[in-house]
Design goal:
This protein is α+β, with helices and mostly antiparallel strands. Helix 1 runs antiparallel to helix 3 and helix 3 packs antiparallel against helix 4.
Length: 186
């Protein structure tokens, strides 16, 4: 494995860590309707747990209302039950064909709880990025120790790795700042 391969692999894994944090942020609900909050909802559809996205379309006709329109109308009750059981703070109501989820206003205390959850997710993402850096640094050190690369080349790639790490950590911080602003918006 070359130094370029190590950097390329580290970049890919760091990108995945940032993407995971973004997904975690999407699952934290705000006062506004956002279909991404339902990403982790699994519906018992004919005996097998199926992601809700595979069973329905979503629309947001008003800022605090999310409409779930199942492809199979016989699954309406199962979808409604799955949303209710997901403990998202939503109270879905179905009219036989579609499910309407009204997002209640968040209390100040609930907003603070969600900000703590977002900060925890961001910190987990940063730890993942740093772990990728550590394993890449170890692999690069091993190449230098075995004499496959020179000291100057090793130092140049180590600097590149540090810049890559800083870029990804900053991206996570920026995403966290945006999520905090979104949560504090009334």
């Amino acid at each position: 494995m070359s130094l370029d391969d190590i950097i390329r692999d580290a970049r890919r894994r760091m990108d995945q860590a940032v993407e995971k944090v973004s997904e975690d942020f999407a699952a934290i609900r705000t006062g506004r309707a956002n279909p991404a909050i339902l990403n982790r909802v699994l519906v018992d559809y004919y005996g097998s747990p199926t992601p809700l996205q595979q069973l329905a379309n979503f629309s947001v006709p008003e800022p605090r209302i999310l409409i779930v329109n199942p492809f199979d109308k016989s699954a309406v009750n199962a979808i409604e039950k799955a949303i209710r059981d997901a403990d998202l703070g939503l109270n879905p109501a179905n009219d036989g064909g579609i499910i309407r989820c009204v997002f209640p206003e968040l209390t100040e205390e609930r907003r603070r709880d969600y900000i703590k959850m977002a900060k925890t997710a961001a910190e987990d993402g940063k730890v993942a990025v740093r772990n990728v850096r550590r394993s890449a640094r170890d692999a690069m050190q091993k190449l230098e120790t075995e004499g496959e690369v020179g000291k100057d080349e090793h130092e140049r790639y180590t600097k590149q790795l540090e810049e890559l790490t800083a870029k990804h950590v900053n991206q996570i911080d920026k995403n966290l700042e945006g999520k905090e602003q979104e949560l504090l918006e009334v």
